[in-house]
Amino acid sequence: MHSLSVFKQMKYCYKCKTTKELDLFGKNKSRKDGLSDECRDCKRQQDRDYAARNREKAKQRASVWYYSNKEHANKRSKVYGAIWRTTNKDKQCAKSNRYRSSKLQATPKWLSQEQQKQIEAFYWLSRLQNELTDNIYHVDHIIPLKGKTVCGLNVPWNLQIIPALDNIRKGNKIVLS
Predict the structure, then answer these.
(1) The whole model's pTM is what?
(2) In a shared domain, residues 93 and 57
(3) How much of the chain, in percent, has pLDDT values that exceed 70?
(4) How far apart are CA 97 and CA 120, in angstroms?
C-alpha cells in the first residue's frame, strides 16, 4: 500500500500556465488553499517589471520601509551576508585580498576586469583544491606585497597556488623555484 506522502501535491500557475509543486508558490491567506495564484518565479518577474517601470516610486517605497524597519533590515543583511560568505569563500577571500592590497596600494589602477576575474579564479581554484584533496592550499604572491627589499603587485601573474605549509614557511620572502 502506497503512502500519500509519495505523491507530490501540485498547483496550476495562471501566469506561466504550468502545473508546479506547492512549495513553488508563495503564501496568500485570503485564498482558500492559503497559496498565491502565481508561482514565485512569475511573481518575481512581475515585481521586477513593476520596479523597472516605476523606478523612483519603488526606490522611495524601499527607502521608507528601510527607515521604518532599520533594525530588522540590518539583522537580515547580517544573516544573508554570513550565508553568502560561507557559500562563496573564494569570492570573500578575493574581496578581502583586494581590500588589503588596495590599502597597501598594491593593486594597479590599470588592472582590467578580465585580470580581476583571473585573480578571483586563483581563489576559486584554491578552494576547489582544498575541497578535493586532504591538503590545505593558499593563494600566494610570488613577490610579496610588502617585502623587505621589494614590493610586488596584486596582479594575476604574481599569484600562485601553493600548499599552506609552504606559504607559511615562505612568509614575506621571494622564493623562486
Answers:
(1) 0.50
(2) no
(3) 95
(4) 10
